[in-house]
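Long-time lurker, first post. I've been practising inverse folding by hand and with some scripts of my own, and I keep getting stuck on stretches where the structure tokens seem ambiguous. Below is the full token string for one chain I'm working on. Before anyone asks, I'm not after the true native sequence, just a reasonable design that respects the backbone. If someone could post their per-position residues I'd love to compare against what I wrote down in my notebook.
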């Protein structure tokens, strides 16, 4: 086994920006990279499994883990608690496995404040309308939940410039190419920063 440690890659995006599909594609098409499984107090959606998508736990269990300082970061997101487990990621990074954290902007800020070495990427949706469409088509959430997620999206976009990289997800294959480049190429040659900067400015104005 090599002594080289794995990288920690933080990926954030508003709900519906296509983050999960991009992460799934990266993990399925590459070796030596895994998605960290977080703990959450939200209920499993249809098709989700415990220890597969999340560790689904109660508020009491979550608070106990928090008290024991078992989280690298944790946050209240869309009214539920979510947290990254120290043991889960440290074990893999020590084994040389690259680990992706799919976390919200509050979690990212905590990781930055704790000076934990990471590469961070923010996925930008093409428009708020497109986000609404995607959340509706996905059909996983009620209208109330979708509205909360859209309000949060506008807030989250304000943090995009704190990340090392921004990727515009208007075309899946291009976004995937950029993400692969960020994670696996040292010179990140495949990133179109101009387009993402322009759309981000429009979304924030
Ligand atoms: P969902 O409920 O749709 O699976 O996730 C909702 C949001 O919670 C997503 O933006 C996701 O990135 C974020 N999230 C998932 N796990 C964690 C975590 O461990 N920590 C933080 N801070 N956010 C998380």
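-- Answer (accepted) --
I ran through it position by position. Result:
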């Amino acid at each position: 086994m090599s002594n080289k440690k794995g990288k920690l890659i933080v990926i954030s995006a508003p709900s519906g920006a296509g983050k999960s599909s991009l992460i799934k594609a990266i993990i399925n098409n590459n070796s030596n990279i895994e998605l960290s499984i977080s703990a959450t107090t939200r209920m499993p959606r249809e098709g989700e499994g415990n220890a597969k998508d999340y560790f689904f736990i109660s508020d009491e269990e979550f608070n106990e883990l928090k008290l024991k300082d078992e989280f690298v970061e944790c946050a209240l997101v869309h009214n539920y608690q979510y947290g990254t487990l120290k043991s889960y990621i440290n074990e893999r990074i020590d084994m040389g496995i690259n680990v992706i954290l799919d976390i919200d902007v509050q979690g990212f800020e905590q990781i930055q404040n704790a000076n934990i070495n990471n590469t961070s990427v923010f996925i930008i949706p093409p428009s708020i309308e497109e986000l609404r469409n995607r959340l509706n088509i996905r059909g996983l959430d009620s209208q109330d939940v979708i509205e909360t997620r859209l309000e949060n999206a506008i807030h989250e976009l304000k943090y995009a410039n704190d990340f090392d990289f921004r990727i515009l997800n208007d075309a899946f294959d291009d976004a995937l190419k950029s993400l692969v480049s960020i994670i696996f190429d040292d010179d990140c040659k495949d990133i179109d920063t101009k387009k993402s900067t322009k759309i981000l400015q429009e979304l924030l104005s």
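A couple of notes from the structure itself: Residues 15, 38, 42, 73, 75, 77-78, 82-84, 102-104, 106-107 surround guanosine-5'-monophosphate (CB under 6 Å). The chain has one domain: 8-204. Happy to go over any region you disagree with.
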